[in-house]
Specification:
Layout (H helix, E strand, L loop, with lengths): L8 H17 L5 H14 L6 H21 L2 E11 L2 E9 L5 E5 L7 H21 L21
Antiparallel strand pairs: 1-2, 2-3
Helix pairs in contact: 1-2, 2-3, 3-4
C-alpha cells in the first residue's frame, strides 16, 4: 500500500518519459521546456519516498518552468531604426505571453536573462515557503494497552 503523499514510481517515470517524448516532438516550440522538466523530475526521483522533500521541489520546478514560459521574450520583430553615433541601427522588439515588452537596439534579440532570473527566484521562493509550511511527520507514540476495568460495586 502506498503511503499518503508519495508519488508512485511508475507515475513519476511515466511523466518523465512522456515529457521527454513530447519535448522531442515539440522541439521547435515548447519542447526545450518539456525536456528540461523531464530532466529535473528525473533528478528529483531519489527524493520521491519523502513527500516533504519531493513536493516542494517539484512545485518549485513547475513554478520556474511556468514562469519562464510566460515571461520569456517571444514574437520578436524588427522595429524602428535608431540613430546611434551618427549611424543607423535597427531595433528589435519582443513580447512575452503575459505582455511584457522587451526592446533591444541592434540586430540581436533581447536577452531572456531577466525572465530566467525572475522565474528562478519565484521557483526558489515557492519551494522554500512550501518546505516551511509542509507538515512534518510526527513519530507515532506507542499506545499503552488499556487494562481491564472492572465495574466498581456500589
Amino acid at each position: 500500500m502506498a503511503r499518503r503523499g508519495v508519488l508512485p514510481a511508475g507515475i513519476l517515470w511515466s511523466i518523465v518519459l512522456l515529457s521527454f517524448a513530447a519535448g522531442l516532438v515539440l522541439l521547435s516550440s515548447v519542447g526545450s521546456v518539456l525536456i528540461l522538466l523531464a530532466a529535473l523530475l528525473a533528478m528529483l526521483a531519489p527524493l520521491r519516498p519523502d513527500p516533504r522533500a519531493f513536493w516542494p521541489l517539484a512545485v518549485g520546478v513547475l513554478v520556474f518552468l511556468g514562469g519562464y514560459t510566460v515571461t520569456a521574450p517571444v514574437n520578436c520583430r524588427e522595429g524602428a531604426v535608431a540613430f546611434v553615433d551618427g549611424g543607423q541601427v535597427p531595433s528589435r522588439f519582443c513580447d512575452s505571453v503575459v505582455g511584457i515588452d522587451y526592446e533591444r537596439i541592434g540586430d540581436e534579440d533581447p536577452s531572456p536573462l531577466p525572465a530566467f532570473a525572475a522565474s528562478l527566484g519565484g521557483g526558489i521562493l515557492v519551494a522554500a515557503l512550501l518546505r516551511l509550511v509542509w507538515p512534518r511527520r510526527r513519530p507515532v507514540e506507542p499506545v499503552e494497552p488499556i487494562e481491564d476495568l472492572e465495574d466498581p460495586e456500589p
